[in-house]
């Protein structure tokens, strides 16, 4: 299995390589790909050194799959070139997510929609992935009508520059700013840029991607996305109104038995999901499950996941695993 990792020198690209190794994905030949300025640099995979190559060289080598984590502009330009050469692309940027001709996939929920002709497959946004992993099995049973989501998102979601900003601020060092404000000892109610309706792009991703993955346009979603001074792991407070009545014991049972979920819900022992406990894990952690007492058929829960793993790299590798298992690559 020849595998190209596009954006191999970036934050998510590095985690991608780590996840491929940890999950023993059967890589027979690895092609690390990055921008021209990184060509020739060395990266390590499973104890072996590999030289970074260019996009054109990677296409010429005809890998079976290319996992992209190189930004929307790069993906719009190069993913079609890889696809033209018969290479299946799993793209981690926002470039193709809402394209009606492309599938948006979270394997636990909708991998079955993939076929041999899907040459560009979109990996959803990190904050959407963890939420829908928890929501989908509940929606199946009770049918979600409306969601109110508040996110508490790690600086790793912005990238290396943001991680450095937080570290510098904690050390009292002046350096480059990834955000328009100080992030240490602060919360910034802005993830990505603002759109015309007053919501940020991140908030609108939660709205639009949720409907596409769940496959139900009738679900109403509203979101507020906040950047917090945490390095690794996104947290979300989710309030969901269902069409059908639910029993809390059944809700816990459904979540505990659903693939990819770890239930951590014992307030008497102060047990609930936190970014620290989700670090370097592939699962989605759910807890603080309780009824919204202000209106009927409405549930509150808290969901946490490592945004660089399940929120990005792991989800992409799981898509690749599914494609391989079903002989679609």
**Can you tell me the CATH superfamily of the largest domain?**
Dihydrodipicolinate Reductase, domain 2
Radius of gyration: 20 Å
Biggest sheet, strands in spatial order? 2-1-5-6-8-7
Tally of helical segments: 10
Question: What can be said about the biggest beta sheet?
Answer: 6 strands, parallel
- Whole-number tally of structural domains: 2
The CATH topology of the largest domain? Dihydrodipicolinate Reductase, domain 2
- In terms of quaternary structure, the protein is single chain
Stretches with pLDDT under 50, minimum 5 residues: none
What top-tier CATH class of the largest domain fits best? Alpha Beta
What is the averaged pLDDT score? 97
Shape-level CATH architecture of the largest domain: 2-Layer Sandwich
- Given helix and strand content, the structural type is alpha/beta
Secondary-structure element string: EHEEEHEHEEHEHEHHEEHEHEEH
Number of strands: 14
Shape designation: globular
Distance N to C terminus:
9 Å
Helix content: 25-40%
Query: What is the percentage of strand-forming residues?
Result: 15-25%
Give an overview in words.
The chain is of the alpha/beta class. The chain folds into 2 domains: 2-124 and 312-325, 3-Layer(aba) Sandwich (Rossmann fold), CATH 3.40.50.720; 127-306, Dihydrodipicolinate Reductase, domain 2, CATH 3.30.360. 33% of the residues lie in helices and 23% in strands. The protein has 10 helices and 14 strands. The protein has helices at 11-22, 55-60, 72-84, 107-110, 126-142, 160-171, 201-214, 248-257, 275-278, 309-325, and strands spanning 2-6, 29-33, 42-45, 48-51, 65-68, 88-91, 103-104, 120-122, 144-153, 220-227, 234-242, 261-263, 284-291, 298-305. It has a 6-stranded parallel β-sheet with strand order 2-1-5-6-8-7, with helices on both faces. Strands 10-9-11-14-13-12 form a 6-stranded mixed β-sheet. A two-stranded antiparallel ribbon has the order 3-4. Strand 3 (42-45) and strand 4 (48-51) form a beta hairpin. Helix 1 crosses helix 10 and helix 5 packs parallel to helix 7. The longest helix has 17 residues, at 126-142. The termini are close together.
